[in-house]
Write a structure and sequence with these properties.
9 strands; about 35% helix; Rossmann fold; seven-stranded parallel sheet; two-stranded parallel sheet; alpha/beta
Length: about 200
């Protein structure tokens, strides 16, 4: 069974949409370890609304924080401390998609980051990249950081409007597998997510 940790090159790059698509493609379980803010409209709820299969199970968050901030700051506001040793991968006989928060070096507490969480969970990473000025740098730095820690990378999933020049240089310089792309999706619904999921399915197995 596959366990994929979906992280991004930064915030607002489309991790939740990517998580929904990968979850649907594999009919995998889904887990968001830390939710900061939007507790009434969490990422788990967003993914659940877009999934169209009867196999996926949605596992509860380890930490649900009230403020839409970096997890370390949100935890401090709520009077809790995130303990990285408390994270345990949910028991399942299914594939599992784990959605991170922000990028790799987003702090969970004064010592640990999302990168440390990935290491502790021993997951293979899918890196979501979205094109903007500086995204080449952010993508290549994320890849280098993962490689330095010897964390396996399943591949890059580009999200949003295509930029051939950017994607070409990232492909050449990273030498990392390109899973595919998620085109800009104006209408998000189960049918659209399932269509994209079926197109990417074979590259995720």
């Amino acid at each position: 069974m596959k366990t994929y940790f979906i992280t991004g090159i930064g915030t607002e790059v489309g991790k939740t949409i990517a998580s929904a698509i990968v979850t649907q493609a594999l009919k995998a379980d889904y887990w968001k370890p830390v939710q900061a803010g939007e507790l009434n409209h969490s990422d788990r709820m967003k993914v659940e609304a877009l999934i169209d299969n009867d196999r996926t199970k949605f596992h509860p968050e380890a930490y649900k924080l009230s403020q839409p901030m970096s997890p370390h700051a949100a935890a401090e506001r709520d009077g809790v401390e995130i303990d990285i040793s408390s994270f345990k991968i949910p028991q399942t006989n299914n594939h599992l998609v784990i959605e991170g928060a922000g990028g790799l070096l987003v702090p969970l507490n004064d010592k640990n980051t999302i990168l440390n969480l990935i290491e502790s969970l021993k997951c293979e990473v899918i890196l979501v990249s979205r094109h903007y000025l500086g995204s080449i740098n952010h993508t290549l730095m994320s890849i280098e950081t993962l490689q330095q820690r010897k964390i396996p990378i399943k591949g890059i999933l580009f999200n949003g409007k295509e930029n051939k020049d950017t994607e070409s240089i990232i492909t050449k310089m990273s030498n990392v597998n390109i899973i595919g792309r998620i085109d800009e999706l104006d209408d998000l619904n189960k049918s659209v997510i399932n269509s994209v999921a079926q197109n990417l399915k074979n590259k995720l197995i």
